[in-house]
User: Fold this.
Amino acid sequence: NMQDAAGGFRTYWDEIIGTVTCWPSLLSMAATWDVDTMHEFSVALGQEFAGKGANTILGPSINVHRVARNGRNFEYLSGEDPFLGGKLAEQYVAGVQSQGVMTVMKHFVFNNQETNRGSEDSVVEDQTAWELYYPPFQAAVDAGVSGTMCSYNQEDGDYSCSNNRRLNEDLKGKMGFRGFVQSDWGATHATSVTSGLDMDMPMVNDPLFQPAALSQVPEKAIDEAVTRTLAAMVRMGVMNSTKCTPPACNDYFVKDVRGNHAAVALKAAKEGVVLLQNEGGVLP
Assistant:
């Protein structure tokens, strides 16, 4: 039971509006510079998702900003600071997952612009990747994040969800990520299980992860993909705690789960309004 994410439980349908909290953007949350506020928000967010019958949140979004006009900068928790992003990502993962809801960090990786996002190629050297773009993801991995969502763009000439170097060597290898990798919706370009993709989120008539295609994949790779997915579910206990199975979730969808969270949201919004004073000429 996966659900978006950045501003709270996504209100796809009119009957959900007014039953969940509209939270400050994750970029605004980053501007609080406050790990305690982030944790308080994340626990409340997890409570609302659990109350709606969800067992997975498609977040946090933690890419470090590079392009100032990127249309999704508002939902990226790191802002321009990989260290800050790492500290806040830890709290997001811990807080949400304390409520029995799996977290999925995104968008892996180098998803720094919306313009031509389905075709642009992000070319990043290793030192820059590990020092600037990877730290928030590494922090989320160390905090026990359940899943990773690969992105629409290419990286060094290979699409993100088919990128063996980034998914297998860096994420699952050097970072030590033990959860599952899922695609963004429609971001799969090949039956790329051996390249590190464990789960395809398809668009209409997507044959890439259907039985005929998967029958050509080595059994060992299939076993690993299934094991990673099931292990995350077992670790978080979602097989026993999930409240409903779609489409029989309407009672939970329309349930008001806000509680006293408006006060938490207001506090976070106020703390996100930051004015810097250049004392001692520290800033240029």
